[in-house]
């Protein structure tokens, strides 16, 4: 995926897209329980009881995972996996597959040497925004399915599954509703994509200049952890706004959601679920980049044979 300037054309776009989609989907399957916990924590508002503030239902990463598993069964932790895989095939394939071509476009075809960090960030912002514009409906359905907790007896679920959710949303709310939260989602995914891909690119490039380090699994592991950390630090506030807008139709706009969250829950609400978010994105990035590097080697060997 993130190659140096000597190997810009060592794999086709189709090969990169397929490798990226596979790696992103595999990482999604492994880490979606943490993402479900993160969404529940982000959507949780302060509960007011008659004599003061009630204890929140979900507390911490492991506590939230345990509560969901206990109340709704283990399978509930994989709610949203079908639209999650739809999302990763589209979004993951496009944002990562387009990163090298777009980066090369920004530096020019005759460029030689290390690509400046600013160009890497710009390429990440561009491909993240383009990819999520196409994949937003899959993200919306994933959040809606993850947000639905245990219902009282006799109360039917809003959606019976991913495909039912797509059709129900179109029928009840219109086609445009599939792009609910597109503003904060573009902001979130452009920023997080730039943080992930540019930091992975930069950290990997830096590590490879240290004597004794080679382009191996340890390097990919360290670069993947760095990518996850930067992505969460930078993207957490906009991620909370996106989850709240997608999970609750009461907000009129991105600004309305931001103001109400700040007013009702305080500034720390924008870092709600930070630990599960880092647990999710850190592990997601490590799994995704490790898988991606191996998938690209496999595809490259097929294309060159």
UniProtKB/TrEMBL annotation:
<comment type="similarity">
    <text>Belongs to the mitochondrial carrier (TC 2.A.29) family.</text>
</comment>
<keyword id="KW-1133">Transmembrane helix</keyword>
<dbReference type="GO" id="GO:0005743">
    <property type="term" value="C:mitochondrial inner membrane"/>
</dbReference>
<dbReference type="InterPro" id="IPR050391">
    <property type="entry name" value="Mito_Metabolite_Transporter"/>
</dbReference>
<keyword id="KW-0472">Membrane</keyword>
<dbReference type="InterPro" id="IPR018108">
    <property type="entry name" value="MCP_transmembrane"/>
</dbReference>
<keyword id="KW-0999">Mitochondrion inner membrane</keyword>
<dbReference type="InterPro" id="IPR002067">
    <property type="entry name" value="MCP"/>
</dbReference>
<dbReference type="GO" id="GO:0015171">
    <property type="term" value="F:amino acid transmembrane transporter activity"/>
</dbReference>
<keyword id="KW-0677">Repeat</keyword>
<dbReference type="Pfam" id="PF00153">
    <property type="entry name" value="Mito_carr"/>
</dbReference>
<protein>
    <recommendedName>
        <fullName>Uncoupling protein</fullName>
    </recommendedName>
</protein>
<keyword id="KW-0813">Transport</keyword>
<feature type="repeat" description="Solcar">
    <location>
        <begin position="115"/>
        <end position="206"/>
    </location>
</feature>
<keyword id="KW-0812">Transmembrane</keyword>
<feature type="repeat" description="Solcar">
    <location>
        <begin position="11"/>
        <end position="105"/>
    </location>
</feature>
<keyword id="KW-0496">Mitochondrion</keyword>
<keyword id="KW-0346">Stress response</keyword>
<feature type="repeat" description="Solcar">
    <location>
        <begin position="215"/>
        <end position="298"/>
    </location>
</feature>
<dbReference type="InterPro" id="IPR023395">
    <property type="entry name" value="MCP_dom_sf"/>
</dbReference>
């Amino acid at each position: 995926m993130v190659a140096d300037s000597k190997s810009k054309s060592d794999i086709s776009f189709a090969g990169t897209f397929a490798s990226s989609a596979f790696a992103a989907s595999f990482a999604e399957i492994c880490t979606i329980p943490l993402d479900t916990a993160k969404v529940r924590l982000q959507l949780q508002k302060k509960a007011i009881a008659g004599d003061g503030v009630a204890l929140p239902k979900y507390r911490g990463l492991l506590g939230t995972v345990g509560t969901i598993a206990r109340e709704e069964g283990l399978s509930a932790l994989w709610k949203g996996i079908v639209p999650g895989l739809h999302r990763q095939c589209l979004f993951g394939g496009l944002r990562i597959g387009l990163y090298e071509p777009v980066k090369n476009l920004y530096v020019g075809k005759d460029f030689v040497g290390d690509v400046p960090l600013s160009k890497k960030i710009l390429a990440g912002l561009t491909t993240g925004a383009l990819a999520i514009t196409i994949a937003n409906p899959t993200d919306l359905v994933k959040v809606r399915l993850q947000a639905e907790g245990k219902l009282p007896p006799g109360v039917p679920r809003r959606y019976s599954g991913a495909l039912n959710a797509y059709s129900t949303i179109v029928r009840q709310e219109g086609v445009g509703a599939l792009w609910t939260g597109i503003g904060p989602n573009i902001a979130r995914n452009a920023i997080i994509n730039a943080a992930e891909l540019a930091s992975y690119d930069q950290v990997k490039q830096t590590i490879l200049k240290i004597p004794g380090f080679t382009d191996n699994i340890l390097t990919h592991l360290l670069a993947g952890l760095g990518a996850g950390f930067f992505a969460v630090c930078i993207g957490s506030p906009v991620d909370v706004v996106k989850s709240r807008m997608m999970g609750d139709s009461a907000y009129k706009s991105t600004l309305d959601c931001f103001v109400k969250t700040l007013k009702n829950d305080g500034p720390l609400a924008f870092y709600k679920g930070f630990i599960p978010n880092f647990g999710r994105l850190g592990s997601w990035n490590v799994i995704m980049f490790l898988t991606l590097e191996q998938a690209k080697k496999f595809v490259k060997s097929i294309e060159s044979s």
